[in-house]
From TrEMBL:
Range of residues in the leader sequence: none
Domain ABC transporter: 8-248
Gene Ontology molecular function: ATP binding; ATP hydrolysis activity; ATPase-coupled transmembrane transporter activity
Name under which the protein is recorded: ABC transporter ATP-binding protein
Record SMART domains: AAA (SM00382)
Short name of any one Pfam family annotated for the protein: ABC_tran
UniProt source species: Vagococcus allomyrinae
Alphabetic keyword roster: ATP-binding, Nucleotide-binding, Transport
Presence of keyword Cytoplasm: no
Amino acid sequence: MKEESYLIKFEDVSFIREGHNTILDSINWQVAPKENWAILGLNGSGKTTLLQLITGYLWPTKGNLTVLGERFGQTSIPDLRKQIGWVSSALSYQMKGHFLAEDIVLSGKFATIGIHQIVSLEEQAEARELLTACGGSQLIGKTFDVMSQGQRQITLIARALMAKPPLLILDEPCNGLDLFAREQLLERIHSIANTPDAPNLLFVTHYTEELLPCFDNLILLKEGKIFDQGKTTDLLTKTQLERFYDKPVKLIPMADNRVTVVPN
Ligand SMILES: Nc1ncnc2c1ncn2[C@@H]1O[C@H](COP(=O)(O)OP(=O)(O)OP(=O)(O)O)[C@@H](O)[C@H]1O
């Protein structure tokens, strides 16, 4: 496959913070079109740093990084960012309590926080339709401050989709959700992943039970290194996960080939 055909291509990428602390070490990883990936790692393994490299908030110390066909150092980072949807808790904190759900979704079209331009009736209708398609019809007319955590995540995912990005990053989207809200959100993500014009998804989590079947490719990230990568079903074995966590674990099978991992 040609280099520009990959959505993401890390070639021996390292990231070293000032003070010589190596946060990411020799990352080699490629995402081809139509592939959805999950990144699984413990606290401090480097997941957020990896996302910050992809979105141009950090720059590789070593190696080559190509995102959406653009090689870092030869591209406009603001233009690149417009093509990447990123749903994270940091984004949630930027929303004001009085913002209406449909306006939050619409603001995704302009990559702004709040609406600062004249919008057409068609654009407003498009935002409502997208919110509805994401399972948030009951949120129309609701403000951010009265939404549950799960409803906020649905709104932010719809917002990210408004710009029709080729790549959507879901950074620990289930954080703060109770068991049932988490399942509901995962069902919505599953539906979005199965729409014909779905973006490539990149899903970051601490928990194997959130790895929906659509995330059929997986990175196990450990202490800034790729411990292993490949097909999710091949990696989620007792032997491999005990090596990954350095601890005995028990795997509890769930529906849809998902699996819960608990200390043993
Ligand atoms: N601004 C910073 N300055 C110095 N070190 C940092 C900074 N941000 C992160 N680190 C360090 O980089 C390493 C990787 O952090 P990162 O946030 O990427 O991990 P993570 O896998 O996303 O963790 P978590 O699951 O807790 O969110 C950690 O050791 C962390 O302490």
